[in-house]
Amino acid sequence: MLELFIQQILNGLTIGMVYALIALGYTMVYGVIQLINFAHGEVFMVGAYLALTVMWIFASLFPGAPFWLVLISLLLFSMLGSAVLGAAIEKIAYRPLRGSPKLTALITSIGVSFFLQNAVMLIYGLKEQSVPEIIPDVRWHLGDLSFSLIQLIIFATSLGLMFFLSWFIKHTRTGKAMRACAQDPEAAQLVGISVNQIIRTTFVLGSMLAAVGGALFGMYYGSINFHDGYLAGLKAFTAAVFGGIGSVPGAMIGGILLGVFEGLGAGYISSEWKDVFAFLLLGAVLIFKPSGILGEPLPDKV
Amino acid sequence: MKEFVKRFLAALSLLFLAVLFCGAGEKEDFVTIGFVAPLTGDQAYIGTGVLYGAQIAVEDANIKGPVFGNTRLKFAPLDDQHNPTQAVLAANKLSADPNVMGVVGHFNSSCTKAASSIYHETRVVQITPASTNPEISRQGFDTFFRVCATDDVQAPAAADFVWKELQAKKIVIVDDKTTYGKGLADEFEKKFKKLGGVVLSHDGITQGEKDFTPLLTKIKSLGPELVYFGGIYPELSLLLKQSRKVGLETPWMGGDGIYDVTLIRLATPELAEGTYATMLGVDPHSLPGARDFITRFEARHGEIGSFSAYGYDAANVLIEAIRRAGKKDREAVLREVRNTKDFQGVLGVINFDEKGDAVGRSVGIFKVEKGKFKFLQEYKP
Amino acid sequence: MSLSRIKSKHPFFFQVVLFLFPFVLLPILDKNIYHIDLLTSVGIYVLLAMGLNVAVGFTGLLNLGYAAFFALGAYTYALLNLHWGCPFWIGLPIAGAVSMVFGVVIGLPSIRVRGDYLAITTLGFGEIVRISFNNLDEWTGGPNGILGIDRPQLWLPVFKGGFHWKLWSFSVNPTPYFYLVLALVAVTAYLLFRMSDSKMGRALVAIREDELAASCMGIPTLKIKLIAFGLSSFIAGIAGAVFASKQTIVTPDSFDFVLSVLILAMVVLGGMGNIWGSALGALVLGTLPELLRGFAAYRMLLFGLLMILMMIFRPQGILGGQLIRRELASRQKEADHESA
To answer: Which residues in chain A have Cβ-Cβ distances shorter than 8 Å to C307?
Structure first.
């Protein structure tokens, strides 16, 4: 019984890492421009499809390539592709609306989300796409527990990227500039920070993380679908709010916790209500503690 | 006032534009055969396969000449996206067309059931090629017919096989909560328990769901000898893939909904190996009557789907009935469908019972071996 | 009573009758069942768009889960009918009431939160409702939904062979539904017009424009917002019951997020806050998929593009900005009077 419990937690942590990666993008963007970027879930999904494409290329041109080479290539490629996508979305859809009311930008982001979903559907087809098994099926057993290589890779990659991001925000100039913009964009501009550039960097960073999440997601579940971004995005947003929107460590913790709760809920109560847990959690957090676990209470401007 | 007039005219013109665009009616001597199946969406592949089958039947008939007098056949396919609401809309549309004398459809049991009350209301005969849920014919609609076996034959056949041949005593059941999937799983459970088997758990998943690892982990901890799945191949292929990830090695079994080469492709032949399935009837490739049809089909459309031959037979039953009716009258066509006797379809002889079910349809048991579905045995009720 | 007299004394009544009268004639002039059916569906969209407009357009409350309230109305009537044989005309107001209650219940805690958070909460609510209907198969039929819902029935007087009443039921023919929906649209439009010109209406606009200032002026913002949200949900519930009775079947996947966004797009396209705008938005976006049958695959793509372009280039929609303009114009007239 204990083993089943630990196994569910392990599995929950795995998906939680992916949620965390996506949540980081939401939280950073919200931090700098107070926008809920609906399209972020689609960037995650595109990342998964880009990774798949790389796998196809390897399969047809270099079938003998070692798996770690394929893995690194697809991660880099999907990061690159989504960075471009994220920057493009920011420039085309959000920047023109910089001064507009929040409602307008939110509606636009929904439009971008629909557009991307449909674009991917038209390019890659309606059906579920099977993701080839790149990672060898190596599993470690401890009694009834099993932990697989793919899970290890997900853990390592996600944690690595999260630590990198934390370091980046804390110790580099750009990171400092990002924090400044999140705190007070006008003051940041006064001290010479190019707010536009920082915003773009934020989008790019967030998109890259989401793309890695997408690639890992595809490999873990073995198949992807153009609709995956919507649900994963919503859950990751829940995680970001749960952890405290605008807070980077909050997004990480929120994502991981959400994954675990979801896994436990699905395993012990019922898997069909899995998504409802996430939404109820979201509602509860938004209503009772909108600042989340690690967030600061948001002041009411008078 | 000017603003008012402007807006008023705008509204009027929009209205007339809409009317214009929707096209005018046509006048010709023909009779329409309606057809509904999922033609877009994730089951488009299956639905289109059935469509081609029915379409070939209509085209064949027209080549031979008018179906009666100098009336020819027209084929009107509609898409229901395996959504019962869309199915009702399609049924409404077809019923409203006075040229429609009968409908081949729908494909999914949930859609066929939903649409059946509309067809009953509008007296349009409905022949489904592949909806297996027994409830549909128990509603007492005299307009409903089907050319395939039903789940109260298919599922018990599977239960017998699992109990006797595979000697499995403890199993787990999963269904996708659709009319078809749940119906099939419930029938299986009933028979299996009657034989003395133990059902360790019976869970539901939702079509379109992605992450089954918590459920599969739970199933693994129960240690079943087999998992019976009431559902279709998209979900099963995910289940098979993720089973591997959590270390669940038990064989799976499903019904006609998983009997498709795409399952093997999506789940990879390696993971699909050893999966069992029941199918309505034996493999068409083995039937001499079907060979000609399959060859022609594959020449035109490539790989033939599992249900294309059913579409062909269903359409032909309807066409024959129209021919015998000899006039453009829905009640007459309905009567003739009911009077169908010993109709020679490519999948065998078709007779209908008083509920509209096809009589004596057999069920085949298959197993995935080396990347293909291999026929194991036939089960005749 | 001259026409201009009616127009000035009852401007809204006049407007509503003027714009909707051509539709009364439609089934008489055009016998094509398909057209009537399409316009009936569009009519239901018009109701929904008008309803959402009350929350989003008038009050600035972004509801991304509007489809859930539509679903609640539809399922309420369906369940009442299935289990207790409740006739349509009784089920209709109950459906509206149920949706309204949910609207208030969801609104109470959520309306206090910031605008974009309300959006997400309502989105979550929309998904919760849909998933719940999908999962609770014992009560709601699960993914297969509820079948065999009764159509509306009326007692009609029959004079032939002695006077008596005959029970007549709606059928597959959409024409009676068309008139039902038309009547509902007319009543709703009229009531919304009256409301927009009342103290309540002005309060809503004030809250939308600057909530803080509005509350400083003594407007009980929370109460007013709840009323708006509740009214908006009520309309959705009514539309839901009509929808269920026309389809005779309800399934959870008819009420998904895409529908909520579609209705929002109708409101935005037509002009937020503008009643005829919502109707126009519904007419355009409701008929467009039919006209573009061949482009079904690109539907979402174009839709997304439309939303992006609209927000960048004309966020006030086609007929938007009217309310503000009219306000300014009348204020200008008053100013002129003063100075004269």
So the answer is: 107-108, 110-111, 114
Check if the beta carbon of residue B38 is closer than 8 Å to that of residue B82. yes
Buried b or exposed e, range A155-179, using 16+ CB within 10 angstroms? bebbeebbeebeeebeeeeebebbb
Residue C140 belongs to domain spanning:
3-339
Residue B170: pLDDT over 50:
yes
Indicate yes or no: CB of C298 within 8 angstroms of CB of A118: yes
Domains within chain A, CATH numbers bracketed: 2-288 (1.10.3470)
> Would you state the pLDDT for residue C59?
84
pLDDT per residue as tens digits for the range A196-226: 899 999 999 999 999 999 999 999 988 888 8
Confidence of residue C327 (pLDDT cuts 50, 70, 90): very low
Q: Would you state the pLDDT for residue B115?
A: 92
Domain that holds residue B108: 30-149+287-350
Claim to verify: residue B294 and residue B217 sit in the same structural domain: no
- Confidence band for C91, pLDDT divided at 50, 70 and 90: very high
Comparing alpha-carbon positions, the chain C residue that sits nearest to B25 is C32
Q: Do C247 and B206 make contact, defined as CB atoms within 8 angstroms?
A: no
Q: How far is A282 from chain B (nearest CA, A)?
A: 20
- Whether residues B88 and B197 fall in one domain: no
- Please give the C-alpha separations between residue B30 and each of A19, B66, B96, B119, in angstroms, as whole numbers: 58, 9, 16, 20
Closest-CA distance, A187 to chain C, in angstroms, reads 24
Q: Does B131 touch chain C (CB under 8 A)?
A: no
Which residues of chain B make contact with C151, given a CB cutoff of 8 A? none
Cα–Cα dist B131/B114, whole Å: 12
B322 and B227 both lie in a single domain: no
List all chains that touch chain A, counting a touch as 3 or more CB pairs closer than 8 Å.
B, C
pLDDT along chain A (302 residues), means of 10: 84 93 92 89 95 91 86 93 94 86 84 91 82 83 83 92 91 89 85 89 94 93 87 88 86 92 81 80 78 65 44
> HSE-up of B99 (CA within 13 Å, CB side)?
16
